[in-house]
Amino acid sequence: MRSYISPLPYSEATATRTLATAVMLLGGLPLTVAAQQPDDGTSSWGLGVAVITSQKAYTGIDRDNKLLPILSYENRYIRLSGPELAVKLPGYQFSESNNVSFSIIGKYDFTDYKQSDAPILNDMADRDGGFRAGFKAEWQNSIADISAEYVTEVSGDSEGSEVNLTVEKTWHFAQHYMFTPRIAVSWQDKKHIDYYYGVRSNEVTAGRAFYQGEAGMNIETGARVGYMFKQRHIIFLDVSLTSLATEIKDSPLVDRSTENRVFLGYSYSF
């Protein structure tokens, strides 16, 4: 067993992480663990663009469609993945197919809404996204890639915390294709759910009752497919469906039990 802090030269593993980076950048999903490489001092860049379409659970809210850039960078010390910056800590390589890594992370959470987004939110105070910081552990083994993280909001808005656990597995086909199904659970504390789904006493109307959120757990299922060509180009599609916690579904602001996202994008790795 040996300790390491490693870079990622381009490989199938880097392609796998590029896909996960794009998805995390656009949708806030945990990153896939990629196979660790020897410490040779290299670094990697990724640039691209993606279209994201998502449906939130708020009553009457329209589907959100965006065109967004993809940016990633990684060396032996840090990993920049869109809105997330990870400072790598020493990890352990038990074998070529069994690695554990740790990092301190900071990221911006784009969860927010404005009262103009839907009629149910009229005359409510806007809810802002926020900067989150925490700790992440990632374990790659021959069965699945597993990541766990704890993050808390530190910019003074919701002040809420989350614990996220993701299990996924990537298969490579015919040297060019990748397929990665996943399941993820996200425990959100009372402050987080109350901030985004609660109704304060001064926001109560005849059609919007007072509501104080409690802690709850969301469950996401999803999959992504990727096509890699000329070694550094990747086209990917990612779809996900999130089953919302009862504590969110009970909110008078919500009329859906699920949320969904679809990504279609392209990325080039340097």
Describe the model.
By secondary structure, this protein is mainly beta. Helices cover 10% and strands 50% of the residues. The chain contains three helices and 14 strands. A twelve-stranded antiparallel β-barrel has the order 2-3-4-5-6-7-8-9-11-12-13-14. Strand 8 (145-153) and strand 9 (161-168) form a beta hairpin. It starts with a strand and ends with a strand. Mean pLDDT is 87; it is low at 1-11 and 23-39.
Q: Which secondary structure elements does this structure contain, and how are they paired or packed?
A:
Elements: E1 2-4, H1 12-27, E2 44-55, E3 64-74, E4 78-81, E5 84-95, E6 98-109, E7 130-140, E8 145-153, E9 161-168, E10 171-173, E11 177-188, H2 190-197, E12 216-229, E13 233-243, H3 246-249, E14 258-269
Antiparallel strand pairs: 1-5, 2-3, 2-14, 3-4, 4-5, 5-6, 6-7, 7-8, 8-9, 9-11, 10-11, 11-12, 12-13, 13-14
N→C terminal distance: 31 Å
Fraction of residues in β-strands: over 45%
Q: How many E strands?
A: 14
Poorly predicted regions are 1-11, 23-39
Give the rounded overall mean pLDDT: 87
> Radius of gyration from the CA trace?
19 Å
- What does the main sheet amount to? 12 strands, antiparallel, barrel
Q: Give the count of helical stretches.
A: 3
**H/E series:** EHEEEEEEEEEEHEEHE
Shape: globular
Determine the structural class based on helices, strands and strand pairing: mainly beta
Query: Which strand order spans the largest sheet, edge to edge or round the barrel?
Result: 2-3-4-5-6-7-8-9-11-12-13-14
Classify the helix fraction into a percent range.
Answer: 10-25%
